[in-house]
Amino acid sequence: MGVSLADPNSNGLPALHQGNYGPYLILDKMLWQPPNAGAGGVAGFLRVGGAPGDRNLLNLEIDTGLNAKGLLPGRPLDLGGIALGYVRIGGATRALASDAMLFTRTPSPAIDYEAVIELTYQVNIAPWWYLQPDLQVILHPGGHGAEPPPSPAGPIIPNALVLGVRSSVTF
Q: Beta partners for 123?
């Protein structure tokens, strides 16, 4: 008791915590609307959340971005967006990873955060059907940790480029 789980002298039982909490804040705001735009315009959002880092994998999350609807002539229902996201790995998880490097003498990158940049555009093909391509760049996947076995010890998970398409049909 009182030693890191990474320590060979550990009994393998993690510390127990009573209770948990996580405050958060969400702000959504229409920032600009052209005259007679109806539901069109540019809106922004900000989301911030936190949790104790001694009992949660992530202890801070921040997302922000802009959405623009109906800005292209003749495309009143199309929606484009850009967003940025950031999550910080909790202190206990960072400490355990650091202790594991110390006790195993295996070099590994320090885990810290994960971030994402996202671009998307929702094209309304018909009033009942849309397609939405999405592009994401993920920085420090998994908090910048090492690749899991069977990969060789030490290499970090590389940044990632994710391409996707979402579609919805309403009937």
A: 131
